Inverse folding.
């Protein structure tokens, strides 16, 4: 089921009468059968977008289509969606079975069929043993799976997940996200999944949509977006540790940071923002590179070594921090205090204009 | 558990639904009372003549129903004969009687409804006098009052102010005579007079009922009582010689005079003989702790103010207590409290003195005639507490200030003299009965006939013997109509009075069988005799509602009681108690 | 402070014993305070008049001294009149009235409370908060003030017609004015407010209407609070005295509370037959006690749970 949003706008009026464009003229097509991660910092409008798709909120402008059906004015229960909430929103007074059965009862599905489908769903999420427990007797992960089963049991056209993993601890989070991925694969349902956690989004999504201030910044396969961020915001939002951004300058087809030439380019001379992924640095053992720093701290974890480099703000030219991180192979023996020369891998280097747009 | 819950809820709902249905059915079924009355109002001498041949006014042919007391002398007024209305009439009668008295009242209602089959009387208890009064006062403002109701004079004073009560004089003086033409009636073909021989009522009661503006009757006496004094005859008998030496009339068996009540002077004289002086009973010497208990301090104040001729209130609603005679009276009462001649039940932590009278803590007690039985020690009492065991109780009139009406007298407590003009007085209390003006003419007519029926000679006697109230009619004392009190015991009121008379004449030594039912009515009979003697000097308490400058009569009575209790408790001196009372009652 | 930790078993046991003893003495005392009125009612119902009046009072009574007559006389039949053949104290009539009134009033109260609380907690409409504030403000007006106005209203509606008041009139008059309670609305609204919004959204997506959501989700979740309200309201209806006395014109419509008050007072002397009164009070209390024993678990759960939620 393809979901198409055209010119979708949602305006909230705050108490002081200020209008906030939570979703701002969004055009977005979500391809059928895919798991899409809607990603952005809190307040970027991703949950609002989800609720608009669900029909829990009504847009001020624009249209939503499921395939060729326009659902813009339909109430949620008519749209054929399944929705899973961050806090699961299970009905505490009902057992797992009753929770899963509840949507079917409202749809007046025949009893035997409803029972069969409930069992089927319980099996799908692996909870067939827990059917007669109350939600509070389950772990968070189990509760989340009940919520998913409840969302899927009515065979929705679209599955919507609102921060489904945020309330889980780290281990369960990994487990559950695999589970979600698996379930989505097995059912082949078009799934939209909202999160503020880029790693989560990138790890399970077929495609991610990055949003900021109600506007879509970029959409694409996770790795593609990571590798080719459209703007500084996307570049900074994806990746952990974050991309390092320096104030730089292009002079004579060369990129300078703090008067150190680090790469060549075809672009014209101008002031730029230079983004380099932490893993985009290589150690220049020959020490011929111009790009050198004194290392403040060295952390070696497994096969990677993280070098932490402090730069005094005034002279450093680092965009918004006083230190940055570099990840290099652990085979290099580097001690703190040492000065290291770096080369930069061109594919990990991104140049942005002063407005944050990618320079091409 | 769930099933049980559902089951119980279903049951409750079922119960509730059945309840609704049940009420509806009983309501429709209620008026079909056909039972014949146990006593008919028809006197034995009645000659029932055929219709048409009888001229109205011929007394020999008139069945005096419901009033059997109309004396032949009243026939001087020509009667106007009319057909009795037979449209259905519903009368609502509000009272406060509990389950016991309601039963006899309901019997009388049955009888009345049998006489007038078109009438349905719904009698309802409103729990207590305050609720009754409140509901009527509220109801007056929204035109929702019963057809007739019981009420104290001060209640009626308020109703009259609101213009809500029917004047009864038109009925009392009516010369209309109705012929009963309903063949279902138990008095079919007989005649019913509207008029009433008011002279037959006890004058003291009547005075209370026409004290209102214009001197009209707005109510008639119904359940009346007075106070009498119970005495411990065992103690008296023990001290007969000493008592005689004081010049007090007393029989060998310890009976005081039932015609001449004791005077305060005599009580003072008796105190050293009958009391121990310490406040506690001396069983060996047969001396009580106190001489005389007054159950109601309010009545004590009011009646003694009459006996002392000390102004109290008047029917205009003026509070007159600020005078030297009243203060003198209070000082005298204070002296008597100190001498242990008088006592109030609060000393034993009680509201009534009857229990401690039975215990022997006090030799005499003044209390309502309606509460006779409470003063008689019996096997039901915890024997260990009865200091004199089970003793004989005699009843005499309440003590008076003087032996003869309007005579000057001087009392002394040893240091101070109290001089005043003494009067004979006894309180009369109990509710009256009246009709509200909102009712239709027919409703009022039958309500009136019902009042007439309730207060007729037989019924007032029956009511009196059954409940401990007193007859409101003089003729009841001489009525020859037998009234069944139990299934085996039937008596006329005259015979009822005779029980005590015979006992007293035999000086308490009678040869009645133990099973003789006269024993059961002996004390009631004593009280009835004493009360009858007291009717001559009944005084009523003027009734008035609270005004702009002073409280109502009911409040005045309450404060009067407090006044004496303050003095008794020594929380206030007599003059302080008096000025406090004055403060409470006027503003 | 070493001795705080180094405590031998014996010392510990003694301390434990003493603290337990104190706790039990305290609990015993509280239980006594609660039970004494019941005991006194039972005791008084078995005393004759003199025993009741006796000072100092009798605290214990041998079965041989029991005045069973107090109970027996309640079931004497009325010899005549409209109530002929019924027991002297119309226990069953009064009980039935009280039960009917309690049920109707409680069902009505719970209904209005649930709907109002739902509206104030869940629905968005103009002036909701102002309206709620006004409602809360009315809680400051003492209930007695309404008696007169209620009386006038009831009369205007024709439910207080002395000549022909029906049981339906009485039922409406007794229950309708008290079918709304601001306090209960406030109480339940707070409970409703604690139910997360997501549950509402989830239910919406699952295809419930607002009303179904109330019925299927909110009410079951808030059930402990609703049970508490039910209990409190039935108790209130059971104990009501002044208003039922005001509004009923006939004996057969009386509630137990009014019946108990008036039936045993001697109008002549103003004395009350406390023995009979307490005997009938025992009969009246018995069903309540039975109810409590049967529903003990539910009641305790309802009260304690909602107590914690506060």
């Amino acid at each position: 089921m393809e979901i198409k949003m055209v010119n979708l706008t949602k305006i909230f009026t705050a108490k002081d009468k200020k209008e906030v464009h939570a979703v701002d003229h969004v055009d977005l097509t979500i391809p059928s059968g895919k798991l899409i991660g809607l990603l952005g910092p809190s307040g970027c409008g991703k949950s609002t977008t989800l609720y608009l798709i669900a029909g829990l909120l009504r847009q001020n402008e624009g249209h939503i289509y499921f395939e060729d059906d326009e659902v813009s004015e339909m109430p949620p229960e008519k749209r054929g969606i399944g929705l899973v909430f961050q806090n699961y929103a299970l009905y505490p007074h009902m057992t797992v079975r009753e929770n899963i059965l509840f949507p079917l009862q409202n749809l007046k599905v025949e009893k035997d069929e409803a029972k069969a489908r409930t069992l089927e769903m319980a099996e799908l999420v692996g909870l067939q043993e827990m059917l007669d427990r109350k939600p509070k007797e389950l772990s968070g992960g189990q509760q989340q799976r009940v919520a998913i089963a409840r969302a899927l049991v009515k065979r929705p056209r679209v599955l919507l997940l609102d921060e489904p993993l945020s309330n889980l601890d780290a281990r369960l989070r990994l487990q559950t996200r695999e589970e979600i991925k698996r379930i989505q694969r097995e059912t082949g349902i078009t799934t939209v999944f909202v999160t503020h956690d880029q790693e989560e989004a990138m790890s399970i999504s077929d495609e991610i949509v990055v949003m900021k201030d109600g506007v879509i910044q970029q959409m694409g396969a996770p790795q593609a977006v990571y590798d080719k961020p459209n703007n500084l915001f996307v570049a900074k939002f994806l990746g952990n540790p974050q991309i390092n951004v320096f104030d730089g300058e292009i002079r004579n087809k060369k990129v300078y940071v703090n008067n150190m030439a680090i790469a060549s380019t075809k672009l014209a001379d101008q002031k730029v923002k230079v983004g380099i992924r932490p893993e985009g640095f290589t150690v220049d053992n020959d020490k011929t590179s111009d790009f050198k720093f004194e290392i403040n701290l060295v952390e070696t974890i497994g096969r990677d070594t993280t070098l932490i480099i402090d730069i005094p703000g005034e002279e450093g030219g680092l965009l918004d921090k006083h230190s940055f991180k570099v990840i290099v192979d652990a085979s290099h023996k580097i001690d703190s205090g040492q000065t290291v020369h770096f080369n930069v891998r061109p594919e990990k280097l991104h140049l942005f204009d002063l407005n944050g747009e990618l320079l091409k | 558990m769930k099933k049980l819950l559902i089951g119980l809820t279903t049951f409750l709902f079922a119960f509730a639904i059945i309840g609704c249905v049940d009420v509806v059915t009983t309501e429709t079924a209620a008026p079909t009372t056909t039972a014949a009355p146990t006593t008919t109002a028809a006197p034995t001498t009645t000659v029932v003549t055929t219709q048409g041949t009888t001229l109205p006014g011929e007394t020999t042919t008139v069945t005096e129903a419901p009033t059997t007391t109309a004396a032949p002398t009243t026939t001087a007024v020509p009667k106007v004969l009319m057909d009795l209305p037979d449209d259905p009439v519903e009368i609502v009668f509000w009272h406060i009687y509990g389950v016991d008295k309601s039963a006899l009242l309901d019997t009388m209602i049955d009888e009345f409804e049998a006489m007038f089959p078109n009438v349905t009387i719904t009698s309802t208890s409103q729990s207590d006098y305050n609720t009754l009064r409140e509901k009527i006062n509220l109801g007056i403002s929204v035109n929702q009052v019963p057809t007739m109701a019981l009420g104290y004079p001060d209640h009626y004073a308020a109703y009259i102010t609101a213009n809500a009560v029917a004047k009864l004089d038109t009925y009392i003086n009516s010369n209309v005579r109705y012929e009963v033409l309903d063949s279902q009636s138990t008095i079919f073909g007989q005649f019913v007079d509207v008029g009433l021989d008011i002279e037959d009522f006890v004058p003291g009661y009547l005075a209370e009922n026409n004290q209102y503006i214009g001197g009209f009757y707005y109510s008639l006496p119904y359940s009346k009582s007075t106070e009498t004094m119970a005495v411990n005859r065992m103690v008296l008998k023990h001290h007969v010689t000493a008592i005689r030496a004081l010049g007090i009339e007393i029989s060998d068996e310890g009976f005081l005079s039932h015609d001449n009540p004791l005077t305060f002077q005599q009580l003072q004289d008796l105190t050293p003989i009958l009391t121990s002086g310490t406040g506690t009973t001396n069983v060996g010497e047969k001396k009580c702790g106190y001489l005389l208990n007054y159950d109601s301090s309010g009545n004590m104040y009011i009646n003694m103010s009459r006996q002392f001729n000390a102004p109290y209130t008047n029917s205009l609603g003026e509070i007159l207590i600020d005078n030297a005679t009243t203060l003198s009276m209070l000082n005298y009462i204070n002296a008597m409290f100190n001498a242990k001649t008088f006592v109030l039940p609060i000393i034993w932590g009680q509201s009534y003195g009857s229990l401690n009278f039975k215990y022997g803590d006090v030799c005499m007690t003044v209390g309502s005639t309606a509460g006779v039985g409470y003063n008689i020690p019996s096997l039901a009492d915890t024997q260990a507490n009865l200091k004199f065991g089970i003793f004989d109780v005699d009843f005499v009139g309440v003590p008076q200030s003087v032996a003869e009406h309007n005579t000057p007298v001087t009392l002394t407590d040893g240091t101070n003299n109290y001089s005043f003009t003494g009067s004979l007085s006894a309180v009369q209390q109990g509710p009256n009965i009246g009709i509200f003006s909102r009712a239709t003419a027919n409703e009022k007519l039958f309500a009136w006939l019902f009042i007439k029926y309730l207060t007729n000679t037989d019924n007032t006697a029956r009511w009196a013997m059954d409940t401990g109230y007193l007859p409101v009619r003089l003729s009841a004392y001489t009525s020859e109509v037998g009234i069944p009190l139990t299934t085996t015991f039937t008596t006329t009121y005259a015979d009822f009075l005779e029980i005590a008379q015979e006992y007293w004449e035999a000086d308490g030594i009678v040869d009645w069988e133990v099973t003789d039912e006269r024993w059961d009515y002996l004390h009631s009979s004593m009280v009835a005799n004493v009360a009858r003697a007291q009717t001559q000097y009944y005084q009523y308490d003027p009734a008035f509602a609270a005004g702009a400058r002073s409280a109502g009569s009911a409040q005045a009575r309450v404060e009067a009681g407090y006044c004496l209790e303050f003095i008794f408790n020594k929380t206030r001196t007599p003059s302080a108690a008096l000025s406090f009372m004055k403060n409470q009652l006027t503003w | 402070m070493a001795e705080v930790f180094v405590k031998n078993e014996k010392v510990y046991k003694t301390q434990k014993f003493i603290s337990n003893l104190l706790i039990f003495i305290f609990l015993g005392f509280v239980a006594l305070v609660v039970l004494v009125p019941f005991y006194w009612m039972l005791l008084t119902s078995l005393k004759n008049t003199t025993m009741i009046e006796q000072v100092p009072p009798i605290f214990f009574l041998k079965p041989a001294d029991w005045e069973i007559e107090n109970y027996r006389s309640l079931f004497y039949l009325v010899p005549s009149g409209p109530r002929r053949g019924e027991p002297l104290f119309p226990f069953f009539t009064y009980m039935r009235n009280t039960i009917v009134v309690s049920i109707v009033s409680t069902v009505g109260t719970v209904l209005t409370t649930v709907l109002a609380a739902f509206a104030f907690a869940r629905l968005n409409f103009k002036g909701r908060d102002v309206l709620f504030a006004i409602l809360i403000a009315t809680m400051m007006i003492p209930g007695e003030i309404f008696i007169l106005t209620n009386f006038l209203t009831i009369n205007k509606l024709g439910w207080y017609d002395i000549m022909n008041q029906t049981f339906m009139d009485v039922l409406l008059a007794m229950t309708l004015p008290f079918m709304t309670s601001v306090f209960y609305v406030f109480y339940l609204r707070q409970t409703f407010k604690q139910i997360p919004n997501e549950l509402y959204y989830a239910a919406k997506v699952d295809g419930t209407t607002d009303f179904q959501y109330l019925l299927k989700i909110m009410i079951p979740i808030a059930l402990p609070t609703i049970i508490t309200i039910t209990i409190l309201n039935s108790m209130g209806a059971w104990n009501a005295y002044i208003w039922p006395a005001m509004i009923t014109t006939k004996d057969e419509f009386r509630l137990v509370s009014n019946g108990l008050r008036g039936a045993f007072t001697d109008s002549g002397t103003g004395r009350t037959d406390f023995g009979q009164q307490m005997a009938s009070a025992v009969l009246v209390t018995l069903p309540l006690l039975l109810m409590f024993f049967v529903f003990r678990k539910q009641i305790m759960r309802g009260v304690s749970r909602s107590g914690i939620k506060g």
In short: Confidence is low (pLDDT under 50) at residues 306-310 of chain C. Residues 191 and 271 of chain C are 49 Å apart (CA to CA). Residues 9-45 of chain C form the longest helix (37 residues).
